[in-house]
Structure to design on (397 residues):
């Protein structure tokens, strides 16, 4: 089997890739929100939008206004928000959207007041929009302004993709299925609306890609397996940008093996964090990775929220899944995996620009890290493992 054929076969282990797609990389809200709103404003029949956070800021309100405009002209509009991530949305804000005809459901509303209650850890973390079963958006960007809630001189670093082509079919099926599932579990009555439509893709695209999801049923490990298969084949370079990076032993072992065989392995992680406890847990792993030859850079220009990777400038993924036990074992996630040199080179160039705005961690400094800091990191790491176990996430390996 030729190296090219091995890549095409193994990169998509556990998922079904399809050819003939147009996939456009979108960076930050400056690219994402105008494209999403334009697609909603052009909708004729149906809009599905799933998100973890739907904020009540200026950028998010522009999306809400577009959803309301679509509903008022007779488009079936379904908005599925996470019950924890979007729990602070004002009731009046949601009621106004419903009054305009937008169907709104909350996925697993908050149980009690404690967000870290194990029953609250299984979240809808994916960010997906499908318009007229013709165009889709998949990635890491929530419906919130790039400068909220923490303001920096630069926008939050994040990515999504715009998808047209036959890959629309599984994406559309996925959002419809989850909407009906939540409707059923919450005993909600379906409103009458336009007839269901079948996906279409009038494009001349040539990109080979797969839609990879993680759920608690048939696709529990698909995203992790896609990563591991690609990492095992890397020969030149691995670049991973991940906002919450806390991989299990198997994932770390594959990264260290890649570095040992001469692959340049580079991790871009948060420098500024909104979860100091989680960052402390992640830093428990840095000493071992750095000693194995893995380069780690902490992003300094703003907040890092990306969940992307590029391997050998030919394989890339963009999505919502962090490389941590909450994403890989508990949450509903969605990534696009792309086998295309042009797309991969584009994403790689943007990540290397971000690495230039980051602080490189020195292996010697982490070998001499004071023991109180090491102890606190390992206590945080152990606490994360304990929470995952209580939530029934299974074995974290």
């Amino acid at each position: 089997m030729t190296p090219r054929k091995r890549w095409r076969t193994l990169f998509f282990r556990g998922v079904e890739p399809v050819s003939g797609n147009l996939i456009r990389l979108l960076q930050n809200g400056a690219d994402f929100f105008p494209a999403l709103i334009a697609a909603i404003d052009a909708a004729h029949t149906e809009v599905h939008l799933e998100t973890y956070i739907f904020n009540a800021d200026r950028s998010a309100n522009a999306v809400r206004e577009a959803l309301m405009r679509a509903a008022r002209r007779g488009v079936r509009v379904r908005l599925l928000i996470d019950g924890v991530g979007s729990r602070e949305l004002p009731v009046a804000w949601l009621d106004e959207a419903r009054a305009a005809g937008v169907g709104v459901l909350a996925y697993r509303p908050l149980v009690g007041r404690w967000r870290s209650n194990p029953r609250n850890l299984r979240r809808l973390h994916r960010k997906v929009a499908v318009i007229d079963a013709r165009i889709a958006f998949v990635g890491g960007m929530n419906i919130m302004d790039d400068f909220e809630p923490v303001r920096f001189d630069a926008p939050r670093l994040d990515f999504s993709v715009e998808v047209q082509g036959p890959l629309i079919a599984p994406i559309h099926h996925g959002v419809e299925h989850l909407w009906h599932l939540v409707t059923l579990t919450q005993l909600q009555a379906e409103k009458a609306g336009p007839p269901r439509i079948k996906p279409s893709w009038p494009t001349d695209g040539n990109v080979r890609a797969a839609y990879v999801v993680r759920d608690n049923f048939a696709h529990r490990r698909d995203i992790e397996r896609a990563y591991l298969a690609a990492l095992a084949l890397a020969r030149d370079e691995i670049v991973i940008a991940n906002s919450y990076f806390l991989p299990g032993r198997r994932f770390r072992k594959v990264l260290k093996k890649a570095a040992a065989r001469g692959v340049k392995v580079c991790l871009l992680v948060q420098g500024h964090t909104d979860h100091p406890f989680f960052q402390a847990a992640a830093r428990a792993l840095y000493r071992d990775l750095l000693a194995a030859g893995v380069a780690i850079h902490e992003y300094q220009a703003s907040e890092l929220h990306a969940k992307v990777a590029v391997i050998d400038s030919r394989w890339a993924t963009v999505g919502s899944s962090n490389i941590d036990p909450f994403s890989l074992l508990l949450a509903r996630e969605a990534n696009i995996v792309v086998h295309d040199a042009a797309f991969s080179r584009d994403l790689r160039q943007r990540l290397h620009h971000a690495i230039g705005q980051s602080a490189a961690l020195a292996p010697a400094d982490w070998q001499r890290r004071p023991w109180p800091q090491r102890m606190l990191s390992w206590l945080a790491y152990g606490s994360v493992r304990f929470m995952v176990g209580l939530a029934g996430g299974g074995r974290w390996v």
